[in-house]
Structure formats: structure tokens, C-alpha cells
Write a structure and sequence with these properties.
By secondary structure, this protein is an alpha/beta fold. It has 27 helices and 27 strands. The longest helix is centred in the last third of the chain and has 17 residues.
């Protein structure tokens, strides 16, 4: 029998040998000179009851030794051509191993270093925890065990063994511990390409004063990744008229309450497309709030258009407030936003909100260009650029804080008919149509951008202080195309419909002035007057101390404000809240003209101020010890509420100090 047939027979008979047999054979040089005839490769270590590893003898290597083997299998060819990397030991340091591994991976564009989170990542499909259907292209942190097999796609890791007929290279997988050391090394961080963002579609970007697009795959100019299967801009010369027709067809069957609401819906669709035209990718943009006058009005169906155009699927998140007690969970939302930013998400839509939205974490996320938080599962702080666009939805009855209202663009939908399910649509499968027509829609959006760019990039005519850059760019693009400005304020939603705090205060001013015109009144009396009004401050429980504290703090915020020509003043800011007296007096126009007078700094100031605001006031000649402490600005002795009481009322000590200044 020829040598070739013997080798093939042996290999087919026993394609696997145990790890112990492998080490013994290599040390002894037995079994027909195996170390000369075969090259061994560690494929994997299989878990078993005895927890033993197995090593596969590659039959192709034995056949190739006979001299007449043709490399027909491309996969085998790639395996043979992989570069050998020696493990550390025998004069090699771990740093040498790190450098060799990093040099092989640096040009492959499969692993990247993300400096914001200090992670080695790859781009892949990410699922949100709350919904398995929420799948998007995002960052996946490379774990040590995955790294072990991933590096073996491009290199053979092993060491030099001494055999009877000389030294040879034997394959041996990295241990997870070694892989972990490599992933934590500054060497791999320095050599791998840096990545900061993932684009789901080709966004127009102004780069070196020219309008351009990111490359597919990795683009070092923007430290970005654009999937190879992302949609294309198929018509870069589309005219504005056709672009507006395409966009109008998208929104033609929604029951917008006004033309401005439709304008705001178009602005919502356009805004994610403008990231590369703003001053930075993390320039903040307003929240788009979809409000329905009833159920089944189509608010989330309208909001879902953005996700389909940019992500190819609908992505939704649970509401910020479910309407239940404790619905505004700051800590839970903080974790959710941190997780979204780390994974590279670009959009978050919180659907079907109820009750009163009062979430300080969300309000901070809206305007913060950078998001600082502790890494989930680690005792490590990160500072990540905030590139997420936020949107909300809810029906009439949902309320929100003035701070949130002033950072929103509202999209009101109003349906008059009794049975919402009886409506008939010309295109009942709009979402499916949009998905099929993504490339045309993106071309239409690009047409609006190119029209604005070719006309000298005019700025929008109406400012939006909270988002000035967005107002200039988005407002400029829409006005240049013949749309209304998206920066026109919806006074109804700001002052009446959703901002219940301002609306309630307006009614409170009227009630208190009618009962006690131009007369000092204490907080408890104010609470007594409005307790019979069920709709006023319905989210506060005046029977509990927490509700009373919260109401007192809200009352302070409106000192100096004017509603219905009624102005709220306070006799003495420096006495404790329970002793303070308020005056509701006529005079002035609606608006906020600041505080009535600076806080008194002396006994004389107190007497002058009290005499001006109360004609029956008796001049005081001696301050109480408490009043003297306040005048001396001794904050430690003059604190009225404990940190625990403030926390229950929803305020931090810092927020409280700012509020009472």
C-alpha cells in the first residue's frame, strides 16, 4: 500500500485525537512520524462530561504532503494562507502578541475602537431589551470569547513545538484571559480604526465646504459606518416640485388639525436627514410631539414613517409616563437612554404617553449635546455625544411641564367622526408603500437640501432659541422650498392644552384675585381656595406634605408673572415658606417681567418693601433670630426642607437653590 493511501486511511479512521494524545505524540514523535506528515489545527474545545478538548487532524494537509494535491477549495486556501502568530512566552511579551494581533486586524475594517465608550466594537444587529422587534444596526462590544474565534479567521495562533524531526508550528487557541488582555490594551486601541457613529442611510454632509455623502462601509473622514445594503439616493437631480409631491403623498390622508401641524410633520421627517448640515452631529433638535384628540387618530402611525424611511422598520419605546403612580421613572429612563447611546441608536419614539410628563432625565437629554452616565455593569463613567432624535405621542389629556413644552414642536391630529374604524383610505397600506419607495423619498429629501444649498444656504426667518442651529438650517430649507417655518409657536399647546402647570396657574391667579384682591394671603389659604377645583393641579396630593412642598415651590416660580392682567407678588422672600404672604394685584400685560424687586438685604429694606405692598403694615424694629440668619445669607441655618423631603417632591438640592434665588 502506498504512503498516500496509508495516510488517508489513518486520517479517515481517526480524524480526531484527544488533547492528551496530541501532546503525548508531539513529545514522543511516534505514530509514523506524525509531526513530519501532518499539521495540526485546534478547531474548538467541546464541552463534555469529562471536559476534554478535541483536536482535528486536517485531512487536506496529509493529502497535500503526497505532492499531487490541488487547492480547489477556496476556504482551505484561505486557511492555509493565514498568518502565523506566536503566543507570548519563550522571550515574547504579551505586548508583542497584542501588537501582532492588532496589526493583522487594523486593515480588516471588522473591529473598531470607539473612544466615547472606550470599547472595542463591531457593527451588527442590535435588539432592544423591551421589544425583540426593535432591531437596528448598532455597536456590539466584542467579548473575549468571541474575540478568540474571530481572530482565527485571519491568523493562526500557536506556538513552536519541538519534535523528533525538528521544530514545528502547532496551532493553539487564545485563552479567554489572553483575549481579554488584548481587548483592554492601549495597543489595539491605538492601531484599530476609530468609529463614532453608524449611518442607516447616506446622509448629505457639508465637508470642507462641499456637499458630500459618507462612503459605504467605513469612512475615516467621519469615523462612520454605512451598511453596504443601505438604500441609495437614486435621483440626485430631482426637482423641488416633484420632491414636494412625493412628500405630500405621504401625509395627504392624515387628519392634521391645521396646516402648521402638517408642516411640523414634514419637519419631523426632514430633521434626521440634516445631521450632517448642522454644526455638529450631536447638535440638538426639538422633540416632535404627536398629539391626538382621541384614540385611533393615527398619531403613532404618522410617527412611524420616520423609522421606516431611516431604519427600514418601525422602532418604538415604552411611554415615559404610563399614567400610573410613579410613571415618571427617572432612573429607568436614564438607563434606557444610556443603553441606546452606547449601542449607537439614532431615534427614540416614546409612544402613548398618559398622565403628567415630568421627567428631569428626559428634559436633560433633549438639550444635552453630551450624555454622561455610568457604564451599565461597570463602575466607569462615560461621556457620549448625544446624537439621538426624540419624539413622543399621546392623546389630549396628557400634560407636561413648561420646560418640555418649550422644547417641542407639536403635531396635532384631530378626528371628528364618531367611529374611527369606519374611515376609508386611498392607500390603506401606507407603511408598506413607504418601505418600497424609500429611495425615492430619500431623493426627495435630498432635493430639498440641494435646493437650499444651491441658493446660498439661507437661514430660517423665525428663531427658536433652544435650538438655534436647527431653526436656521431646517427653517431655511423648508422656507426655501415654499413651506411654512417649523418654528412658528403653537401657543395653544404651550399655554393651555398640555402645559397644565401654566394653565392651572392662570386659573389660580383669577380665583385668588377674585377672593382676595390686592390683599396678602398665605399659602394654606390659597390651597383651600383651589381644593374645590378638581381640575386644578390634579397631579398634586395636597393632603400629603410632599404635595404641599411641591405646590409651594411651583408658586415661587410664578412670582412676578402676569396672567389675565393679574400679577403675583410676595411680601417677604426671606421668611420661611409657611409664613410667607402673597398678593394678587391688577396691573401689567400677560408675560413674565421678572421679580418685583430684589430680595431685601437689610431691616430697612424689609420695612420699605412691606410698607409698599401692605398699607396696614406696622414697621418692625427688631428682627427675629431666624430673619437675621436669612439676611446674613446663612444658607445652612435657613434651610427649610430636608434633602429627603425635596427628593420626594421631585427636586434636588441644587434645583431647589436655583429655584428660590
Amino acid at each position: 500500500m502506498e504512503k498516500k493511501e496509508i495516510i488517508q486511511k489513518e486520517t479517515k479512521k481517526e480524524p480526531y485525537v484527544s488533547k492528551e494524545d496530541f501532546e503525548r505524540l508531539m513529545a514522543q514523535g511516534n505514530r509514523k512520524d506524525m509531526e513530519r506528515l501532518f499539521d495540526y489545527e485546534v478547531i474548538k474545545f467541546k464541552e463534555s462530561k469529562k471536559n476534554k478538548g478535541e483536536i482535528k487532524v486536517l485531512e487536506e494537509y496529509a493529502t497535500a504532503y503526497s505532492g499531487d494535491y490541488k487547492k480547489e477549495d477556496e476556504k482551505v486556501k484561505e486557511e492555509v494562507e493565514r498568518e502565523d502568530i506566536l503566543l507570548d512566552g519563550n522571550g515574547r511579551s504579551v505586548s508583542d502578541l497584542c501588537e501582532d494581533v492588532s496589526n493583522i486586524l487594523k486593515d480588516k475594517k471588522i473591529l473598531f475602537y470607539r473612544p466615547d465608550s472606550r470599547q472595542i466594537v463591531e457593527v451588527g444587529k442590535v435588539k432592544t431589551k423591551e421589544n425583540d422587534k426593535n432591531i437596528f444596526d448598532g455597536f456590539l462590544e466584542i467579548k473575549d470569547k468571541r474575540f478568540v474565534t474571530l481572530i482565527e479567521m485571519y491568523a493562526r495562533i500557536g506556538q513552536i513545538y519541538k519534535g523528533k524531526f525538528g521544530d514545528f508550528f502547532g496551532v493553539r487557541s487564545l485563552s479567554p484571559q489572553k483575549a481579554s488582555i488584548i481587548l483592554a490594551s492601549h495597543i489595539i486601541e491605538d492601531l484599530l480604526p476609530q468609529i463614532k457613529r453608524i449611518f442607516s442611510i447616506p446622509l448629505p454632509i457639508i465637508y470642507k465646504d462641499k456637499l458630500t455623502f459618507p462612503k459605504r462601509g467605513y469612512d475615516e473622514r467621519f469615523c462612520s459606518w454605512l451598511p453596504y445594503d443601505s438604500p441609495e439616493i437614486i435621483d440626485k437631480r430631482m426637482d423641488v416640485k416633484k420632491a414636494k409631491e412625493i412628500i405630500n403623498n405621504i401625509f395627504s390622508e392624515f387628519c392634521f388639525k391645521s396646516e402648521q401641524d402638517k408642516t411640523n410633520a414634514i419637519a419631523s421627517l426632514l430633521t434626521p436627514y440634516l445631521k450632517g448640515l448642522l454644526q455638529s452631529f450631536n447638535e440638538r433638535t426639538p422633540v416632535f410631539f404627536y398629539l391626538g384628540n382621541r384614540e385611533r387618530v393615527g398619531k403613532d402611525y404618522c410617527a412611524g414613517i420616520n423609522s421606516i424611511v431611516y431604519d427600514g422598520k418601525i422602532l418604538e419605546d415604552n411611554p415615559i409616563n404610563t399614567g400610573e403612580r410613579g410613571g415618571n421613572n427617572n432612573e429607568e429612563l436614564r438607563k434606557k437612554i444610556t443603553s441606546a447611546l452606547i449601542s449607537g441608536r439614532k431615534r427614540m419614539h416614546f409612544s402613548n404617553n398618559k398622565g403628567h410628563i415630568n421627567n428631569s432625565v428626559f428634559e436633560s437629554a433633549i438639550t444635552s449635546k453630551f450624555w454622561s452616565d455610568r457604564m451599565l455593569g461597570r463602575n466607569e463613567m462615560v461621556n457620549i455625544p448625544n446624537e439621538i432624535d426624540f419624539s413622543l405621542s399621546g392623546n389630549i389629556g396628557v400634560t407636561y411641564t413648561p420646560d418640555l413644552a418649550n422644547r417641542c414642536r407639536f403635531i396635532n391630529l384631530f378626528l371628528e367622526i364618531e367611529d374611527a374604524n369606519s374611515r376609508k383610505f386611498g392607500n390603506p397600506k401606507l407603511h408598506e408603500t413607504i418601505l418600497k419607495d424609500r429611495e425615492n423619498i430619500l431623493s426627495a429629501l435630498y432635493s430639498l437640501v440641494r435646493n437650499w444649498y444651491d441658493n446660498g444656504k439661507p437661514e430660517g426667518s423665525i428663531p427658536f432659541t433652544s435650538f438655534s442651529d436647527w431653526a436656521e438650517v431646517c427653517g431655511g430649507i423648508m422656507e426655501c422650498a415654499g413651506y411654512n417655518s417649523p418654528c412658528i409657536t403653537d401657543k395653544n399647546n404651550l399655554e393651555v392644552a398640555g402645559d397644565s402647570e401654566t394653565s392651572d396657574m392662570k386659573q389660580l391667579f383669577e380665583i385668588c384675585y377674585f377672593a382676595h384682591p390686592n390683599t396678602p394671603i398665605k399659602r394654606n389659604e390659597i390651597i383651600r381656595l383651589i381644593n374645590g377645583e378638581e381640575e386644578l393641579f390634579s397631579y398634586l396630593d395636597f393632603g400629603e406634605r410632599k404635595g404641599q412642598i411641591n405646590f409651594g415651590l411651583k408658586l415661587r416660580k410664578f412670582i412676578g408673572r402676569i396672567f389675565s392682567d393679574i400679577k403675583l407678588e410676595i411680601l417677604d422672600r426671606n421668611v420661611r415658606t409657611s409664613r410667607q404672604e402673597y398678593i394678587f394685584k391688577k396691573g401689567g400685560n400677560d408675560g413674565n417681567d421678572g421679580y418685583v424687586t430684589p430680595p431685601p438685604k437689610s431691616l430697612e429694606d424689609i420695612n420699605i418693601y412691606r410698607g409698599q405692598t401692605n398699607t396696614n403694615y406696622t414697621t418692625i424694629t427688631k428682627l427675629t433670630e431666624k430673619e437675621q440668619e436669612i439676611l446674613n445669607l446663612n444658607k445652612e441655618k435657613s434651610k427649610e426642607f430636608t434633602d429627603e423631603e425635596l427628593k420626594e417632591a421631585g427636586y434636588s438640592r441644587e434645583e431647589f437653590e436655583v429655584l428660590i434665588k
